[in-house]
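Run log // design_07
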């Protein structure tokens, strides 16, 4: 590794420890040329995820597209930027876990819907209306009915 101070290539590792909740290794290094210390981080390169569009075209997974869709659905809703970012992380993690590097665009939409259902009902219905291409008021009624049905616990029968 090149020293950021003298640009020398010879160094030694003085200390190593896990960082970023185990996602990286933090290394303290000492340059053998100038004797100054600096920190480097080592991370695993993420495996590329590709999205297969309806047309069959393949494109790299774009986290910013997912976030943009979530932000539109959550506009004027009590959902923080931090929560949106966390949801985007959950979505990407779920997609990577469920695929071998390629995922259909329809699966991306379904995972987004699944996560939005847990975050905000209105954001869920907004996203569903675009994703499922609602054409009639009855489409909204049906989706809200399904959402309410999943929220309401089944009534217990009381035996006397």
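design_07 sequence
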């Amino acid at each position: 590794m090149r020293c950021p101070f003298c640009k020398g290539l010879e160094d030694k590792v003085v200390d190593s420890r896990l960082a970023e909740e185990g996602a990286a290794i933090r290394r303290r290094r000492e340059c053998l040329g100038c004797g100054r210390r600096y920190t480097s981080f080592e991370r695993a390169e993420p495996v590329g995820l590709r999205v297969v569009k309806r047309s069959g075209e393949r494109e790299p997974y774009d986290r910013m597209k997912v976030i943009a869709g979530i932000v539109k659905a959550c506009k004027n809703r009590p959902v923080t930027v931090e929560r949106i970012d966390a949801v985007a992380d959950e979505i990407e993690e779920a997609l990577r876990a469920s695929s071998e590097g390629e995922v259909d665009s329809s699966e991306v939409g379904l995972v987004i819907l699944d996560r939005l259902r847990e975050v905000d009902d209105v954001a869920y219905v907004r996203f569903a209306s675009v994703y499922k291409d609602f054409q009639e008021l009855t489409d909204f009624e049906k989706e809200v009915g399904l959402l309410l049905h999943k929220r309401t616990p089944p009534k217990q029968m009381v035996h006397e």
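The chain has two domains: 11-43, 50-136.
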